[in-house]
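Project outcomes to date are best conveyed with an example. Our students and postdoctoral researchers have been running inverse folding experiments weekly, and each run begins with a structure described purely in tokens. The record below, which covers 138 residues, was selected by the lab manager from last quarter's runs and is presented without edits.
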């Protein structure tokens, strides 16, 4: 099993990401979409990486996806020193982008590429929360 806790460092918040982190603190996973080319954008920014325009808007994402790739870390450093084993994964969101995250509340021996996951949030202080994913109960 993954540990009951993982470190939750306070994220760097700036003008482009503030809405994302504030929404995460309220349990809402936001993404941005370009209104000109319809690309869903990750990591939050004003400028569309596809077409270069700044016509983007926030929307509430489903919070669901699947494990695209993962690794089980057995030795952590710094804040993660006592957290092992823990999972670092790329999750492909239903909306398209892939995000780097942790998988929590999981049987490490049962994880597999393609497993369905859903977002969960962990308070990180200063009015923010970190997003992580857990397997969807079947």
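After processing, the design step wrote out the following sequence:
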């Amino acid at each position: 099993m993954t540990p009951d806790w993982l470190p939750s460092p306070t994220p760097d918040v700036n003008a482009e990401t503030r809405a994302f982190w504030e929404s995460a603190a309220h349990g809402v996973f936001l993404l941005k979409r370009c209104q000109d080319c319809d690309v869903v954008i990750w990591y939050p920014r004003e400028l569309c990486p596809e077409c270069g325009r700044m016509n983007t808007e926030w929307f509430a994402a489903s919070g669901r996806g699947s494990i695209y790739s993962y690794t089980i870390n057995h030795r952590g450093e710094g804040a993660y020193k006592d957290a092992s084993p823990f999972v670092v994964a790329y999750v492909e969101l239903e909306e398209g982008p892939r995000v780097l995250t942790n998988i929590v509340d999981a049987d490490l021996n049962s994880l597999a590429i393609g497993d369905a996951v859903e977002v969960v949030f962990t308070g990180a202080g200063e009015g923010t929360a970190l997003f992580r994913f857990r397997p969807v109960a079947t």
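The CA atoms of residues 116 and 138 lie 9 Å apart. The first strand starts at residue 30 and ends at 34. The training component of this project remains on track.
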